[in-house]
DNA sequence: CGTCAGGTAGCCA
DNA sequence: TGGCTACCTGAC
């Protein structure tokens, strides 16, 4: 059991903001597959209850040892961010396993969440190890080197991503991934982008969600829309320009700003019209 | 049936 | 650099 103020952590926002795919909600419990673990966790006010992992794991995995107030203070730059913070307060960046995160986001390109989930589950069933919790059967994410059957990868409905997964499985390992942690943001990103199937967006996701680069600012379609509207007078600008602007504007914790804005844009401003109305204060 | 979805590689100016 | 387009697949 962990006690943490609701204002400083929100399990639902943290797990449902798209940074992790292998989660399942069953009534008030979240069943989570991550880092070789299969555990369940729920939040009741200021209390976190969990089975299958210990306090040390939970504290680390959910970044509970980060100074949340300090982070919010740094990104709270304007009325837009303030509103995103108010609505999704308690959202934290997870500390995921870099390998699992890398493969997951390679799978995410030009896809959607249900499909990504399905691919990752099939890959785990085919190449991972069985783990049980409460008689619920599940599979750990396959370790580097073990996703080595191209036909099986393809039959997980990975499509054109199959070759990226197959190649990455051959060339990448945990040690190399971990060595990126001590590099500069730019060097680490360049290294990741050497992998086929890894571009700016996927690299930034891996850097932010698993390698500790809190300044990484993944630019996807939602972030692009909301950033253009709020900070570029609704003009079309390149992803690179958006990223540079965000890094400069939000600073060391730009990644937290990205997640909050992403949630806000995706959940509440689905249509461009709503987005515009919101900016004009008419929502 | 076309379009589109949390992108990227490859090609060309 | 900047601007295309094809790419697996499945849900509208």
TrEMBL record:
Residue ranges constituting the HhH-GPD domain according to the UniProt record:
107-266
Q: Which reaction does it catalyse?
A: 2'-deoxyribonucleotide-(2'-deoxyribose 5'-phosphate)-2'-deoxyribonucleotide-DNA = a 3'-end 2'-deoxyribonucleotide-(2,3-dehydro-2,3-deoxyribose 5'-phosphate)-DNA + a 5'-end 5'-phospho-2'-deoxyribonucleoside-DNA + H(+)
Q: What class of enzyme is it?
A: lyase
Record-linked SMART domains: ENDO3c
Q: Kindly give the InterPro entries that the UniProt entry links to this protein.
A: DNA_glycosylase, HhH-GPD_domain, HhH_base_excis_C, OGG_N, Oxidative_DNA_repair_enzyme
Among CDD domains, the record links this protein to: ENDO3c
A Pfam family of the record is OGG_N
Keyword check for DNA repair: yes
Keyword annotations of the record = DNA damage, DNA repair, Glycosidase, Hydrolase, Lyase, Multifunctional enzyme
Could you say which EC number(s) this protein's record lists?
4.2.99.18
Q: Name one GO molecular function term.
A: class I DNA-(apurinic or apyrimidinic site) endonuclease activity
Task: Please provide the Gene Ontology terms (biological process) for this protein.
Answer: base-excision repair; nucleotide-excision repair
Cross-referenced SUPFAM superfamilies, in alphabetical order? DNA-glycosylase, TATA-box binding protein-like
UniProt similarity note: Belongs to the type-1 OGG1 family.
- Any idea what this protein is called? DNA-(apurinic or apyrimidinic site) lyase
What organism does this protein naturally occur in? Candidatus Scalindua japonica
């Amino acid at each position: 059991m962990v006690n943490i103020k609701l204002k400083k952590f929100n399990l639902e926002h943290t797990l449902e903001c798209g940074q992790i795919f292998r989660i399942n909600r069953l009534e008030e419990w979240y069943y989570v597959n991550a880092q070789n673990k299969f555990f369940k966790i729920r939040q009741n006010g200021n209390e976190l209850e969990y089975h299958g992992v210990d306090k040390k794991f939970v504290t680390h995995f959910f970044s509970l040892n980060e100074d949340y107030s300090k982070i919010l203070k740094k990104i709270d730059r304007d009325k837009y961010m303030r509103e995103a913070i108010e609505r999704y307060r308690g959202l934290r960046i997870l500390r995921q396993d870099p390998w699992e995160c890398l493969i997951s986001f390679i799978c995410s390109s030009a896809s959607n969440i249900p499909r990504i989930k399905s691919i990752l589950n099939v890959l785990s069933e085919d190449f991972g190890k069985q783990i049980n919790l409460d008689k619920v059967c599940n599979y750990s994410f396959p370790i580097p080197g073990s996703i080595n059957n191209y036909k099986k990868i393809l039959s997980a409905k990975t499509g054109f991503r199959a070759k990226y997964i197959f190649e990455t499985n051959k060339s990448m390992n945990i040690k190399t991934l971990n060595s990126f942690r001590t590099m500069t943001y730019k060097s680490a990103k360049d290294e990741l982008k050497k992998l086929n199937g890894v571009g700016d967006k996927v690299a930034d996701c891996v850097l932010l969600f698993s390698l500790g680069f809190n300044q990484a600012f993944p630019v996807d379609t939602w972030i692009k829309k909301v950033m253009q509207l709020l900070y570029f007078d609704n003009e079309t600008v390149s992803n690179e320009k958006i990223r540079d602007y965000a890094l400069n504007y939000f600073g060391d914790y730009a990644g937290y700003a990205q997640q909050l804005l992403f949630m806000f844009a995706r959940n509440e401003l689905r249509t461009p019209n709503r987005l515009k109305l919101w900016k004009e204060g008419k929502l």
